[in-house]
């Protein structure tokens, strides 16, 4: 059996029968505001604390702002700055965003080059840091650049193959338009990932309830339950007992 990599979220590890199989490339899909970036940050933070060099590549937000948001949300994570200072945790993206913006939205051949250049920068940084845990936030940025869905799928496959060859375990965030489980529609690119974790935001009376679900994970049995959660000072926190997810 392959080694397992913690997601950083205890109940999610339980749902995955002790974590993500090492080397899997996992999509974290959800609508705006459900906590995709924070969930992905916790994955890297907990792995960095365990001694695994970790990098978050931000293709949209300013890297410093992501770190600041994580400090504000996870006030119990006291050693974020120490992990960044000793190189165990990195948040990057400025150079890659410049590459993407410089390409604009042109012909597919041009976008193929931009996509390949950006992924080449990601690979170079992974090698330079010796990183084994990766987040790309958000891969939807690439999707917006490419007109042809088949070309986008091919380029995405190339990226996932590159990450697999680099022997990293990664989470790639994806924007979806739906807020609820009932209205979720599978995107064509969902099928290329080793795993898919969905985050939902469902209205309940005057509030919204966040919940998560494992839709797919190669290499392990997993729970098919939907688990409500909140974003608390000490991370993504379930609203049910871990004993009730299998």
Q: What is the CATH topology?
A: Rossmann fold
Mean pLDDT metric:
88
Major sheet strand order: 5-4-6-7-3-8-9-10-11
Query: Beta-strand percentage?
Result: 25-35%
Give an account of the 3D structure.
This protein has helices spanning 10-15, 36-49, 63-73, 80-85, 94-103, 108-129, 140-143, 149-165, and strands at 4-5, 20-21, 25-30, 54-58, 89-92, 133-137, 169-175, 195-204, 207-217, 226-232, 235-238. It has 246 residues and is α/β, with parallel strands linked by helices. The protein has a single domain, classed as Rossmann fold (3-Layer(aba) Sandwich). The strands form 2 sheets. The protein has a 9-stranded mixed β-sheet, with helices on both faces. Strands 1-2 form a two-stranded antiparallel sheet. Helix 5 (94-103) packs antiparallel against helix 6 and helix 6 (108-129) packs parallel to helix 8. The longest helix is centred in the middle third of the chain and has 22 residues, at 108-129. It is globular. The two termini are 20 Å apart.
Descriptive key words:
8 helices; two-stranded antiparallel sheet; nine-stranded mixed β-sheet; 246 residues; Rossmann fold; 37% helix; alpha/beta; 11 strands
Topology:
Blueprint: E1 4-5, H1 10-15, E2 20-21, E3 25-30, H2 36-49, E4 54-58, H3 63-73, H4 80-85, E5 89-92, H5 94-103, H6 108-129, E6 133-137, H7 140-143, H8 149-165, E7 169-175, E8 195-204, E9 207-217, E10 226-232, E11 235-238
Helix pairs in contact: 5-6, 6-8
């Amino acid at each position: 059996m392959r080694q397992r990599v913690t997601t950083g979220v205890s109940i999610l590890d339980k749902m995955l029968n002790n974590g993500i199989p090492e080397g899997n490339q996992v999509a974290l899909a959800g609508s705006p505001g459900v906590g995709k970036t924070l969930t992905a940050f916790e994955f890297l933070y907990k792995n960095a604390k365990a001694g695994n060099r970790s990098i978050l590549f931000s293709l949209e937000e300013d890297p410093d702002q992501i770190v600041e948001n994580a400090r504000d949300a996870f006030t119990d994570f006291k050693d974020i700055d120490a992990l960044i200072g000793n190189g165990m945790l990195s948040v990057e993206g400025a150079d890659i965003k410049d590459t993407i913006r410089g390409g604009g939205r042109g012909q597919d051949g041009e976008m193929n080059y931009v996509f390949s250049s950006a992924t080449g920068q990601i690979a170079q940084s992974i090698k330079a840091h010796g990183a084994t845990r990766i987040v790309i936030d958000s891969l939807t940025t690439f999707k917006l650049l490419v007109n042809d869905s088949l070309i986008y799928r091919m380029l995405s496959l190339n990226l996932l193959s590159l990450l697999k060859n680099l022997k990293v375990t990664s989470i790639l965030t994806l924007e979806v338009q739906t807020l609820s489980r009932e209205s979720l529609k599978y995107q064509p690119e969902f099928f290329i990932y080793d795993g898919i974790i969905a985050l939902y935001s469902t209205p309940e009376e005057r509030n919204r309830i966040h919940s998560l679900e494992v839709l797919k994970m190669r290499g392990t049995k997993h729970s098919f339950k939907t688990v409500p959660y909140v974003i608390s000072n000490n991370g993504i926190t379930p609203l049910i007992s871990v004993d009730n997810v299998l």
